[in-house]
Amino acid sequence: GESVGLHLPTLSVQEGDNSIINCAYSNSASDYFIWYKQESGKGPQFIIDIRSNMDKRQGQRVTVLLNKTVKHLSLQIAATQPGDSAVYFCAEPMNSGYSTLTFGKGTMLLVSP
Amino acid sequence: GAVVSQHPSRVICKSGTSVKIECRSLDFQATTMFWYRQFPKQSLMLMATSNEGSKATYEQGVEKDKFLINHASLTLSTLTVTSAHPEDSSFYICSARDAATSGYSYNEQFFGPGTRLTVL
Fold first, then answer.
1. How much is the mean pLDDT over chain B?
2. How many CB atoms neighbour CB A17 within 10 A?
3. What tens digit of pLDDT does each residue of B45-89 get?
4. Are A6 and B41 in contact (CB under 8 A)?
5. How far apart are CA B78 and CA B89, in angstroms?
């Protein structure tokens, strides 16, 4: 069974709404971040990335905002669709070699028609 | 686009048996592959980094003799869970980094679809 204390944050929205998923990081030296989408029973899928010399980056229906002052980044999804329902993870390199990733805890996004 | 496959997608085995999971890069060469484990409603945890032609690098707390990794070619890495027990039941995911790309960005790392292991 599920251990006490383990909980995947969930964001429930209506189709067409805008969704905002948040991620906090602890290392002020972190300079590169990636957002992944993981649908149920599948591997993670790259969505968008951002370097620390940027505050904002836009993709198709997605925007990532980076606030280095408070060590926070967010993923905004415009006009959320049922197909956006998934778990979203932020990730960052584990070391200066950028060869391995550490993933955040994840947020489950549930989109109702 | 670059595709990574895993086989099998699901496996159920008895306690004490060994299970091999394959990770293949289908249309690119991968000098480095990564193995992750994911428990239900949790994040991905890196287990080890698999390097073609050399020994894998394991993360702290991951038993080398329990999780055997072989990266014998530029397109194939295997993870063998030896003497599996119910607590090894998990979702195992591999990713592969395209050897042809270099530099800064992570969008060259591609994830497989995962393998669901259930140990009875």
1. 91
2. 14
3. 999 999 888 889 999 999 999 999 999 899 999 999 999 999 999
4. yes
5. 17
Please list every residue in chain B whose beta carbon sits closer than 8 Å to the beta carbon of residue A104: 43
- Closest alpha carbon to B22 in B77, B95, B74: B77
Contacts of A107 in chain B (CB under 8 A): none
Angle at A13 between CA A109 and CA A2, to 5 degrees: 40
Separation between Cα atoms, residue B96 and residue B51, nearest integer Å: 10
- The verdict on a CB contact (< 8 Å) between A49 and B34 is no
- A44: distance to nearest CA of chain B, Å? 6
- Residues 6+ away with beta carbon under 8 Å from B61: none
Mean pLDDT of the region A33-49? 95
Residue pair B34/B23 in contact (Cβ under 8 Å)? The answer is no
Interfacial residues of B (vs A; Cβ cutoff 8 Å): 4, 6, 32, 34, 40-46, 49, 93, 95, 97, 104-107, 109-114, 116
Residue B103 forms beta bridges with which residues?
Answer: none
Q: Give the nearest partner residue to A2 out of B41, B97, B113, using CB atoms.
A: B41
Provide the pLDDT for residue B1: 67
Q: Tell me the shortest Cα–Cα distance from A46 to chain B, in angstroms.
A: 7
Chain B residues in contact with A6 by the CB 8 A cut-off are 41-42
Confidence label for B106 from pLDDT (cuts 50, 70 and 90): low
Quick check: B46 and A6 CB within 8 A? no
